[in-house]
Amino acid sequence: MKTSTCSLLLTGLFSLGSTFASADNTSAALEAFAEGLGLSSSDIAGRAESYDAGGDNVDISCSLLSLLFPESTVLPGAEAVYTSKVGINWSVRAHLTPTCIFSPNATSAAATGVKIAAFLNTPFAIRSGGHTPDPGAASIERGVLFSLENLNEVTVDHENGVARIGPGNRWISVYEKCESEDVLVVGGRVAPVGVGGLVTGGGLSFLSGTEGFAADTVKNFQVVLASGEVVNANATSHSDLWWALKGGSNNFGLITRIDLATIAKPSGLIYGGTLYFLPYQYPAIISAIKAFQEKGQIEDPKAAIISSFIRMPSQSAELLTLQVFHQDPEGTVPPSLQAFFDVGPFQNTASVRPLSSLANEIYAMESVPVARQAFRDLSVGVSEEMYQYAVDLFASTYTALDNVPGFLGSFTYQPISTAMVDVANATGGRAMGVPRVPHVWFCLNAMWAEEADDELVLGTGKAFMEKLAEKSRELGVEEGFFYLNDAAADQGVMESYGEEVVERLRGVSAVYDEGKVFQKLVKGGFKLW
Ligand SMILES: Cc1cc2nc3c(=O)[nH]c(=O)nc-3n(C[C@H](O)[C@H](O)[C@H](O)COP(=O)(O)OP(=O)(O)OC[C@H]3O[C@@H](n4cnc5c(N)ncnc54)[C@H](O)[C@@H]3O)c2cc1C
């Protein structure tokens, strides 16, 4: 091996492991393993003694990664790079300090990394865009963080009707590339959100009314299994894994490429924008949302909306933003969306534009200083009374947090149609167990500045959503489904898919990950057991 600054760090790292019990047989096992990776015995000479077959061997894992991939492995000593990589996570709560950060630039490197972690029993986390707010889902305190920003291919294959997308991409790069080739894919609505997490968590898109969730449009997942083997999961090969990954998140392997079906769309042009409303208009908007779910969305599935009630005490502002969207760029207000315009927005940006422009607009609108963030969600059936109750409770609950520094609360209504759910019948099914009725996914997003307020903000959010769940039971509109991508760590996402699905997912895990590497070593996220 070439000597590099990284190998100088090895000495220090290995000395950290000197307290581990050593045994000839375990040292020999490590030496044999390292040799299998192409390292000579002199590369690890004098270091294998620290190997502890029962320990987490995290320092050894980081050392092997540094030896094999010096350009892709960052240790805390490399302050500026390390700090900027830690800061990729959207929420400050998720800015944990991994023992090392490994950013593979090829599938083969990612596979070697997984092999190392699995062999050495080292905890690891997988991060694509890092937009999960809870700590530990895509970040780790002691262990290896696989940070996938270098897996950023976007290739449009017109002949096969797919875009091959590295999971480390943000949707904005995907859309810009696709638009330049006159196609679109089904993905996130906000520019910087990551591909890997959104797709494996389901993926609600502006295009979902006709195309289903992003996961439904996956033609192929390229996956590194716990053994380090790389497989393609699709309709004809490893189809059980393909199904499981559509909502199964990080439970089965590390995904290194996702092939999404493309939709022809010249220059990516759509119709869309944001309408802004004031609190006195909320009841009218709520009626219009209900009517949209009962008629507009059914008769015109190419139309979509997402509405967020926002409290921004620092600006003394309370408002509602409502994105309107239509797949056909007609230039006039689509009849299915007219009712929202009739309420009289005080500002309106709707126009014909590329999807990337809308994704950027929403991002710019949502941009706040780097903050502590939390999500929590709930699904409820269509009910004007429920929707109005929720927005009233949001206002009355959150006045109590007006003095929390940096507080911003956003409470979002995302209408889900039966047609969206049914798309999976034609696309090989999905693990994500969405109720087959029109309903809404509520998502609460709280942002704040100081750790000292964590308990207050998180506790308030939990109590607020529990009250909503209680009300939904009272009104008979409880759906019991938690959408993975908007859920808090303590919400029973997998259980909400239903017992049968969970059993099937566990079966898939037993086939592809017998040693439960992605359950025991990848601790963050929503697990199967
Ligand atoms: C501003 C904002 C806007 C959003 N808009 C939408 C939206 O329009 N539609 C929607 O459905 N959701 C949306 N979300 C939610 C979003 O889908 C989730 O936050 C999602 O996790 C983001 O993906 P990511 O790659 O950034 O996630 P990460 O935080 O990197 O990962 C999320 C989870 O997936 C796992 N994972 C990630 N990549 C891989 C991989 N390659 N292999 C195996 N496991 C992996 C991680 O380990 C982690 O547990 C939004 C979130 C934010 C903050």
From TrEMBL:
One of its GO terms (molecular function) is oxidoreductase activity. Gene3D superfamilies: 3.30.465.10, 3.40.462.20. Residues 1-23 form the signal peptide. Residues 94-265 form the FAD-binding PCMH-type domain. Keywords: FAD, Flavoprotein, Oxidoreductase, Signal. Belongs to the oxygen-dependent FAD-linked oxidoreductase family. PANTHER family: BINDING OXIDOREDUCTASE, PUTATIVE (AFU_ORTHOLOGUE AFUA_1G17690)-RELATED, FAD-BINDING PCMH-TYPE DOMAIN-CONTAINING PROTEIN. This is FAD-binding domain-containing protein. It comes from Morchella conica CCBAS932.
